[in-house]
Amino acid sequence: MEKERxxxxxxxxALAMILGGTAGYLWVGQKVVEEQEVxxxxxxxxxxxxxxxxxxxxxxxxxQEETITPSTKMVYQYYYPSDDVTETAEEVPPxxxxxxxxxxxxxxxxxxxxxxxxxxxxxxxxxxxGNSHERYIVGVKNGYVAVxxxxxxxxxxxxxxxxxxxxxxxxxxxxxxxxxxLVVGKDRLAQVLQDYGS
Length: 198
Prior knowledge:
A hairpin with a 2-residue loop joins strand 5 (135-141) and strand 6 (144-151). This protein folds into two domains: 1-24 and 67-129, Ubiquitin-like (UB roll) (Roll), CATH 3.10.20.420; 135-197, Alpha-Beta Plaits (2-Layer Sandwich), CATH 3.30.70. Helices cover 35% and strands 29% of the residues. By secondary structure, the protein is of the alpha+beta class.
């Protein structure tokens, strides 16, 4: 049972990172498109072109920044100051992070502290409010989104049933809820419920 909990927890972290990264990637892409300016086409004559040619060869400067590669190790640290616990998850980068630079990552992951960045390894750290042992499962009860406590001694017990009908959600979310979504910390739980309620 403990291995299943750890596996579910790791899957949920990966899904949260993928969803957050996708949103950030799309946001950055939109900003890039908005900031681009259309430059007017300049027409020059052959004589003007001859006059503008430099007499010395231009020096090429390599300004290529380090980027995330498919083999970069992504390390996510979750720090719980209440009980001074740091939980770590490691994974390969999702496809939408490949090719991004340090500044791209700082823009996308503004709520994270970027501890290190290289093509070999990227380490991100986030402070999470609440205790590391505050674990909940968001699932389904009587056709509505419900929250269950997950405790080592008592197992799973109902915390609350919301007024959010599962039928109002898309098929993918209904499937995730049927399987149960592990959530750590009260702040994260509130955010997940807010997402379903909006």
